[in-house]
Amino acid sequence: MEKISVKVCLGTTCFVMGSANLQELIDIVPAKYGDKVDVSGVPCLGLCATDWEFSKAPYVKVDNEVIKEANVEKVLAAIDEKLAKRQ
Amino acid sequence: MFIDIDCNQVKKYNQNAFGDYFISKRYPDEAKLIAVLSDGLGSGIKANILSCMTATMLLKFVEKQEIPIRQAAEIVMNSLPVCKVRKISYSTFSIIDVNDEGDAKIIEEGNPEFLWIRNGEIMTPPYETIPSKTFKNRCLKSYKIKLELGDRLIFCSDGVTQCGLGNGRLKLGLRREGLIHLVLAKLNEEPEISSSELSAYIIRQAKNIETERLPKDDISACVLYFREPRTSLIFTGPPFNQKKDNEYAKIFQDFKGKKAICGGTTANLISRELNLPITMDKEISIGKLPSCSYMEGVDLVTEGILTLTETLECLEEGNLDIDNAAGKLIKFLLDSDCINFMVGAKLNQAHYNPALPVEIEIRKNIIKKMAAVLQDKYFKKVSVQYI
């Protein structure tokens, strides 16, 4: 089965708006899901430039789903949902 | 040729101010550099004022070529007053005016003779003595020399040659012979050592020789090293005109030298145009900055504004040893001689969100300040291109 990919935007806007606080995902996710999920940073998802009026940074992508105003709980919930659908 | 220049100093113990003064300036349009090292009589504030005035005035005289270097040095020599207590002149100086071709004019008054090293050997350049018209015991030494790739020049204040004076081992101090021995041994060990490291080494050794490691005089060593320039290119920010992305990506690709990208969008742009995948560090943040990413053929890929802002701050403060993306960028910059910035002028409106910290500055401003500090404080050759 293909891994779920979690991409945390580390662009300037997302980083100051909170993706710096998502560091713990790097530890939590492998501990919780083993090798089913892959977490990494990405230089910039480019979403702030298109969505800026609403300023929903930080952005995280779980597979193709965009999570706005992401925090650890929201990301974990999205992963759980994806995994549940697969079963 | 690139002239790698740096100077390191220590103060006389118990003093708050440096009594030696070093000043250097590059003139990119004329492809030349002028540097002055002056030693003020006595120590502390008084010496600091004397040496600072001598050095800055000499530089000002010579820089616009309004007065020839030799005449400028003569004016200063003939004008320096005599100290009532010590009956010698108020300051001594060495001045060098050198271009990228290696044509150097050097004038010394009172400072220890400079060292000229080529292929591990000390050269003995001819010089002309110019006596002072007003003071009997003063004279200038004027040199005209042609430098080659790999040559080094070392200027120092008498604090170096006289260090250790009177202690058990070196009754007459380190002297010129001791300094030559020290420097040649170091060069034998590390032939490619940078000017900054070599001058720091000389200072450290001089201090170690002093009794109880307390310098009895101000100690300064200025090193010039003529070598092939290490060039680098930093691409930061997407170009104003998106249609030109490909063109700029190609310029970046074809650049011969070290390359860095500062900015997530810029990294994506290069990745897309050149079809190079980006891989990230395992961490999300290191310190208070996003971690670096990696791209084949690129030496460093970092986030943009935050990293650049911290880099600028650290460069200004001289705080160079930090363990994050800014630290890597600092190392990248300091390991280069000629630094080219390609600065994309496109704005990201999200950065103007009032919810963001006010520290988020306009890229152009940061680069402008960074170029100035790299040029003035770290003696780099910097060019900035806005795209």
Structure description:
The complex is a heterodimer of chains A (87) and B (387). Chain A has four helices and four strands. By secondary structure, chain A is an alpha+beta fold. Chain A has a single domain (4-86), classed as 3-Layer(aba) Sandwich (Glutaredoxin), CATH 3.40.30.10. The radius of gyration of chain A is 12 Å and the shape is globular. Chain B has 387 residues and is α+β, with helices and mostly antiparallel strands. Chain B folds into two domains: 2-227, PPM-type phosphatase domain (Phosphatase 2c, domain 1); 231-386, no CATH class. Helices cover 32% and strands 29% of the residues of chain B. In chain B, strands 14-17-18-13-12-19-20 form a seven-stranded mixed β-sheet, sandwiched between helices. The longest helix of chain B is centred in the N-terminal third of the chain and has 20 residues, at 44-63. The two termini of chain B are 28 Å apart. In chain B, 45% of the residues are buried. The model of chain B has no long low-confidence stretch (mean pLDDT 91). The chains are: A alpha+beta (87), B alpha+beta (387).
